[in-house]
Amino acid sequence: MINPLLITRKENAGILRRICSELNAVPREMIGEDWSLAVFLKRDLKTYLYQSHFIFDLSAFKEQGDELVNLCAGIYYQKSDANIIIYADNCYPGDEILDKLVHNGITNIVANYPDVDEKTNISMMAQDLKECITEGLSQKKWRRFDKSFDAFAEAREAARETLNKTKSNRSNE
User: Fold this and answer.
1) Which of 22, 86, 156, 164 is 20 to 30 A removed from 128 (C-alpha atoms)?
2) Residue 158 covered by a domain
3) Alpha-carbon distance values, 123 to 56, 74, 110, 118 (Å)
4) Distance from C-alpha of 7 to C-alpha of 54, rounded to nearest angstrom
5) Three-state SS for 61?
6) What is the mean pLDDT of residues 22-46?
7) Angle subtended by helix axes 118-134 and 10-22, to nearest 10
8) Helix axis angle, 96-103 to 65-78, nearest 10°
9) What pLDDT score was predicted for residue 17?
């Protein structure tokens, strides 16, 4: 059963609630402004350890940057199988916070898609959120947040592998 905990701002609660509803998930909700993840970890996390997922709206927290990344990573110390999903509607690929999350093993990230119109962006983010909740965001998608990822190098390597397979198949004929 999917029973996520949502910690979000009121502005984002509707989209998160709607996606959960589509998945027949029953979320617990903590809605408001200026949440402290540090206080949540110390005081409240033990109450919510049974939740299947923790969906954190980045814009709802006081902590930002390295402090937020370290606190998210700290959840794994208390619940090693935690499914943390970061909803970052104010972030884009290339943002430092997303890169740091990925490098700390937090890869279920929902963020903006540049180069698409607003309607398409919202639709793609909703699809990513569904994927994060059901099976985890695919590596193909979360790699866009890793600044060290070089898509061109990967494409060249894939082309090289295809060429080598083609050569190998021809030589076996």
Assistant:
1) 156
2) no
3) 19, 31, 11, 9
4) 8
5) strand
6) 91
7) 60
8) 20
9) 87
Residue 98 has pLDDT above 70, yes or no: yes
- The amino acid at residue 89 is D
Q: Is residue 170 part of a domain?
A: no
Position 162 in a domain? no
DSSP 32: -
CATH classification of the domain holding 37: 3.40.50.2300
What burial class does residue 95 get, using C-beta atoms within 10 Å of its C-beta: 0-12 exposed, 13-18 middle, 19+ buried? Answer: middle
- Residue 69: which residues within 8 A CB-CB, separation 6 or more? 97, 100, 101, 104, 106
> What residues make up the domain containing 42?
5-147
pLDDT at residue number 158: 67
CA 92 to CA 160: how far, in whole Å?
A: 30
Question: What pTM, to 2 d.p., does this model score?
Answer: 0.84
Domain count, the chain: 1
Specify the 3-state DSSP secondary structure of 87. strand
> How big is the chain by its Cα radius of gyration, in Å?
19
> Looking at residue 164, what is its pLDDT?
76
Domain contains 155: no
